[in-house]
Amino acid sequence: MTEVTFAQLEPMPDDWQRALAVVAHPDDIEYGCAAAIATWTDAGREVGYVLATRGEAGIDTLEPAEAGPIREREQRASAAVVGVSTVEFLDHQDGVIEYGTALRRDITAAIRRHRPELVVTLNHRETWGETFWNAPDHVAVGRAVLDAAGDAGNRWIFPELTEQGLEPWNGVRWVAVAGSSMPTHAVDATVGRERAVRSRLEHRTYLESLTDEDPEAYVRSFLPGDARQSGKRFGNRPAVTFELFPR
Ligand SMILES: [Zn+2]
């Protein structure tokens, strides 16, 4: 039998101090990369979260007006578990986020406020690999994040932001895309994995709407880093993988 070999993943750069994760919905970071976030905050790095929506359209049995505040609360609790205290919401509409200049402007403003060296987002590609179709909100936000990393450094793009006192920030060195089917880099998830589980479990109302299973069993069945393929590509260690776009 022929052994299939995979290119090895590089370790993520670690010569940085501030990261900003920008995603569409509550639970996107927990689904994609919370174990890496825990590892980074343990090492004394600052990480902030920015969410395009409050995930108000994510629970079938709850009206958006009721679901939004619950999901916001769950997201803040979830962030706290992995050492993140800054959580902001851009108030785009869940499920129908439009890729365009309004979204790019809001993300550019967030990048200029927080001045991160590393920006993290969730898979912007059409699929999760093969024929697993991605949600349009993830595609819109992921693309806008990759664009805004450049927009943030140009004072003539969105000059109204400069007028509001948000000076250009050209210091984003990488955008790391979690959940990509084409990963290039990885973070060892050995230490952060248990906290990632607890972080995701804070989305209790949401998880209970997804499954009749015990929430913890459900979360553990999807744990990033248990994927044998990414482990094989990273010295057999559990890993959170990223597709890294250097700037
Ligand atoms: Zn999502």
From TrEMBL:
Q: Keyword annotations for this protein?
A: Zinc
One Pfam family name from the record? PIG-L
Q: What is this protein called?
A: PIG-L family deacetylase
Question: Domain of life here?
Answer: Bacteria
- The organism of origin for this protein: Streptomyces cathayae
Name the InterPro entries for this protein: GlcNAc_PI_deacetylase-related, LmbE-like_dom_sf
| Keyword Zinc annotated | yes
Residue ranges annotated as coiled coil are none
